[in-house]
Write a structure and sequence with these properties.
The structure holds 3 protein chains of 3 kinds.
Chain A lengths: L3 E10 L2 E11 L4 E5 L6 H9 L6 E6 L2 E2 L10 E4 L11 H11 L4 H14 L15 H14 L4 E5 L7 H18 L2 E6 L2 H7 L2 E6 L2 E6 L1 H6 L4 H6 L6 E7 L4 E3 L2 E3 L5 E7 L4 E4 L5 E10 L4 E7 L2 E7 L10 E6 L5 E4 L11
Parallel strand pairs in A: 3-8, 3-9, 6-7, 7-8
Antiparallel strand pairs in A: 1-2, 1-4, 4-5, 9-10, 11-14, 12-13, 14-20, 15-19, 16-17, 16-19, 17-18
Chain B lengths: L5 H29 L10 H8 L1 H34 L4 H9 L6 H12 L4 H8 L15 H30 L2 H9 L4 H29 L3 H7 L6 H10 L4 H25 L9
Helix pairs in contact in B: 1-12, 2-12, 3-7, 3-9, 5-7, 5-10, 7-9, 7-10, 8-9, 9-12, 11-12
Chain C lengths: L2 H37 L12 H9 L1 H34 L5 H10 L9 H11 L5 H25 L3 H9 L4 H30 L2 H6 L6 H8 L5 H21 L4 H6 L4
The chains are: A alpha+beta, B mainly alpha, C mainly alpha.
């Protein structure tokens, strides 16, 4: 078991800067998700940790050992690839045993560890089959079993669920979580799916344009985003931002009194479910353009103070397109941002 | 793990060196040899000798005629076959295999096959005889029957080398998503119109490479002609062979070689230009 | 398709199949029928008193046997050389982006625009000096120049078709570069490599011009047949043609699944 230290790692592709001096510590046994839109550098970072890509600057340590210049084989890690990369010319057993065989483990040892990994992922019935005969979900299990069989110090996963259909993804997500909790493996997990990151990770590192913009517990990232980008990227619907001008640490939006932590041009950030629906003259005015009944809730899309706003209302609420309502955000869950920098202001609310 | 820079170079080096030694060097040598005046400053002597030869004009004419007749027929035939394969739901694999058998048949063997059919007492004459159209064995492949000899060679060439065109076209068809022509038909195009407006333009790169491949090889035509008609019908590469082998005049043979290469290159350039496609218009 | 159209369609398919197969059938008749059949008039369209004896007699002619042996040697050498040289180049083209890749690819493609066999002409002199003239190895060298571009482009397509992730997975799970290639890439590429090898064999087996130019006494089968063409009796010519065709047909059957990889894709 070991932690990962990523120290000021930079990467250039030709003239383009893919990673800009990224630092991240993953504690021993911790599960950290690298979350971000495509092209943000999260996969590049993972591949540099794996040794599949060279860094332009910085260093990577695993278990305190500098592995920056080692071959992937010598880094003591395992990886689950986006397309599983299950070897098609080997049986499931041989696939799971691959890493152990490369380590020249004794035969009985290999047999035992393969069986255990297979049992953990419930692929024992398929051990003699070839991957071509398996479904996508089963191949996924083989890929995870192969990674866990070597009992790696560090497990890297590159969008492992993105090729599964929605239902299977939900099932695998839960299973992955229980399996990894049991194995207590240090895990770095790349995903662009924020629900996956929220559900699985101990900590989420949100990446934007080659930088980590926030690395915090999922609930913190969700409710206290470090920037408008994080607020907009994490959570569905994304966080709402309404323009406010404050002076003397106070501001007023329609019939709503606010106590911002700073003066000037600010953004009032609030989650769609953190508001109270009130009559129009008791909060900020919200004009409903579309009302979508989602079953578990009613999703209202409209505008307030000239900014687009989405609100989650109880499924039974009787609201229709064209209605005017008042909104009253929960004062404890408001995130204040600067309009200029898009960054969160300290001393929230 | 990213590669040390030298790895790809080490990997291509053997092939590159080999091709340099056996493609670039002989290419340059051929050109130099063809312009070698044999000690005299007359660098065009070989070319003059080539052009002055009795067979030269004949060889030029025959070669161009052959290419001009064979290649278009092969393209049309292969296109028809490719469309048929496209429409086939059962038996496609076996039919494709049969149609591509000649791919493995050498031009010499193809010539011999057609010799068996077309010679004086051959199978064609037997059929014609039994139909009462002939009185007895009749020669078709003599110097006195240049037209039938030509037709025979055309048949043998079509028989042998249409498969190459077919393979390239079928591969091209496979790259075109079926939805395109289906979409065209949904919007009211008849199948011929859909073929002309959708399939054909998308197939252009394949047609281009098939034509280049086939035309270059067609200008090299030689063994088929020899097998069927001996030297009754001179062609360019056959003349090169004769000058090299029978007359032992390497200079004139080289001049013929350069001529064939120039013609092949010119044909390639023409195809590249005439059938050019903008990359963004392809799927 | 309606009934009538379907009938027309399949008659067309059948006619085209016959167009390919009937000539082969007829030369087989000529090869097995021997002297009697070759000069018989009118011809029979079925085998009469056929025997392998006729073919065996043909093969027993000393020149023929030697020539066939030379052909096999030259073709095997071509197969080995073009794969040994071409496959690494193909792998480099498929897996690495490097300066000069474009130039190399261009050179390989350029060979297509040249009647390569003709380049055997100036090689005679060099080969005589190097002691390669009139040897199967010399012929194989020129044939490799013909087959190598195919081998390089085909294997490039082949290797590109094997997901890079598989190789990376092997690296992550403890393989060196070479181990990963041997354990993961090679087994997956093997059938395609075999097809490319067979194809190189056929290219050499069928080539007439360079083989004729570069040999005098150690003829390959094609070169031998070409030189004795004028003076050999018809039934020998037919037997020769048949002997040339048979391996090709078998080979094409063996590689039929890869024909597209060999021709289609590599021509793009």
């Amino acid at each position: 078991m070991a932690g990962i230290q990523i120290e000021r790692v930079g990467k250039r592709f030709g003239g383009a800067l893919a990673l800009d001096s990224v630092s991240l510590d993953v504690a021993d046994g911790e599960f950290v998700a690298l979350l971000g839109p495509s092209g943000c550098g999260k996969t590049t970072l993972l591949r540099i940790v794996a040794g599949l890509e060279t860094r332009s600057s910085g260093a990577v340590r695993i278990g305190g050992r500098d592995v920056s210049d080692l071959r992937p084989a010598d880094r003591g890690l395992a990886m689950v690839f986006q397309n599983y990369a299950v070897f098609p010319h080997m049986t499931v057993f041989d696939n799971v045993a691959f890493g152990l065989r490369m380590q020249k483990k004794p035969r009985e040892d290999i047999e035992r560890k393969v069986r255990r990994a297979a049992a953990l992922l419930q692929i024992e019935p398929y051990l003699d089959r070839y991957p071509a005969k398996l479904s996508g979900g089963q191949r996924q299990r083989v890929a995870v079993a192969r990674a866990l069989a070597v009992e790696p110090a560090v497990l890297l996963m590159d969008e492992p669920l993105s090729n599964l259909d929605a239902l299977l993804r939900l099932e695998m997500r839960a299973e992955l979580k229980s399996v990894l909790r049991e194995a207590k493996t240090t895990t770095l997990y790349v995903t662009h799916d924020q629900t996956e990151a929220m559900g699985l990770a101990d900590r989420i590192a949100v990446m934007q344009q080659g930088r980590i913009v926030q690395a915090d517990a999922p609930t913190t990232v969700y409710s206290r985003p470090a920037s408008t980008f994080v607020g907009g990227f994490v959570g569905s619907p994304p966080m709402n931002f309404v323009k406010v001008t404050a002076s003397g640490r106070s501001a007023r939006l329609d019939a709503l009194d606010l106590r911002p932590p700073a003066d000037g041009d600010l953004l009032l950030g609030f989650r769609g479910e953190d508001v109270q629906l009130v009559p129009p003259d008791e909060g900020m005015t919200f004009v409903v353009k579309v009302a979508e009944p989602m079953g578990s809730h009613l999703l209202l899309t409209g505008s307030a103070a000239g900014c687009p706003v989405r609100v989650v209302a109880p499924p039974t609420a009787s609201v229709h397109a064209g209605d005017r309502l008042g909104l009253r955000p929960d004062p404890d869950r408001i995130a204040w941002m600067s309009q200029d920098s898009g960054l969160a202001l300290d001393g929230h609310a | 793990m990213t590669a040390p820079r030298w790895i790809p170079y080490a990997l291509i080096a053997p092939a590159a060196l080999f091709l340099a030694a056996l493609f670039i060097v002989p290419l340059v040598q051929t050109i130099l040899l063809s312009f070698d005046g044999g000690g005299t400053p007359d660098h065009l002597a070989n070319y003059r000798k080539m052009a002055g030869d009795l067979n030269f004009t004949l060889a030029i004419r025959n070669t161009f005629l052959l290419v001009g007749v064979v290649v278009p027929i092969q393209l049309a035939l292969a296109m028809g076959m490719a469309v048929m394969l496209q429409k086939m739901s059962t038996g496609r694999d076996i039919v494709l295999w049969i149609w591509t058998i000649p791919l493995g048949v050498s031009d010499l063997a193809a010539g011999l096959v057609w010799l068996a059919l077309l010679q004086n007492s051959g199978y064609l004459n037997t059929v014609l005889f039994q139909l009462g159209l002939l009185d007895g064995p009749t020669p078709w492949l003599n110097a006195e029957t240049p037209v039938t000899l030509f037709v025979g060679i055309v048949l043998a060439e079509i028989w042998r080398a249409t498969a190459v065109v077919l393979i390239v076209l079928v591969a091209g068809f496979q790259l075109i998503p079926k939805e395109y022509s289906e979409a065209a038909e949904v919007f009211g195009a008849r199948s011929w119109t859909a073929f002309r407006l959708i399939t054909l333009p998308l197939l252009k790169p394949s047609i281009q490479s098939a034509l280049i491949l086939r035309t270059v090889l067609a200008f090299e035509v030689f063994a088929v002609v020899y097998a069927l008609g001996g030297r009754n019908m001179p062609v360019l590469v056959g003349e090169a062979y004769a000058w090299q082998y029978e007359n032992q005049n390497y200079g004139v043979a080289a001049a013929y070689a350069v001529l064939v290469m120039v013609i092949s290159l010119a044909a390639t350039v023409v195809y590249l230009y005439a059938l050019r496609t903008r990359p963004e218009t392809q799927p | 398709m309606t009934g009538a159209r379907r009938l027309m369609f399949w008659s067309g398919v059948a006619a085209l199949c016959a167009w390919v197969l009937v000539p082969i059938y007829l030369i087989a008749l000529g090869a097995f029928g021997g002297r009697a059949a070759a000069f018989r008039w009118p011809k029979a369209f079925t085998l009469v008193n056929a025997s392998l004896e006729q073919l065996a007699t043909f093969l027993r002619i000393e020149g023929v046997w030697n020539a066939a042996l030379n052909s096999v040697i030259a073709a095997s050498l071509t197969m080995a050389l073009s794969l040994l040289l071409g496959a690494p180049a193909g792998y480099a083209l498929a897996r690495y982006r490097f300066r000069g890749a474009g130039a190399f690819r261009l050179m390989v493609l350029l060979t297509r625009a040249f009647p390569l066999a003709i380049l055997a002409l100036p090689l005679t002199v060099v080969f005589i000096r190097a002691g390669l003239y009139d040897t199967p190895f010399g012929v194989a060298l020129v044939h490799t120049a013909l087959a190598l571009p195919f081998a390089a482009l085909v294997t490039a397509g082949l290797f590109a078709g094997i997901p890079r992730e598989l190789e990376e997975a092997a690296w992550v799970f403890g393989c060196s570069r070479l181990q990963a290639f041997m354990r993961v890439v090679l087994p997956l590429a093997l059938p395609g490599l075999a097809a490319a090898a067979i194809f190189a064999f056929v290219i050499s087996w069928n080539e007439v011009f360079a083989a004729s130019v570069l040999t005098v006494r150690n003829r390959t089968l094609t070169a031998y047949l070409l030189t004795v063409l004028a003076e050999s009796p018809l039934h020998y010519r037919f037997a020769g043609g048949f002997v040339l065709i048979v391996p090709s047909v078998v080979f094409i059957f063996a590689v039929r699944r890869y024909l597209f990889a060999l021709w289609g894709v590599s021509n793009r």
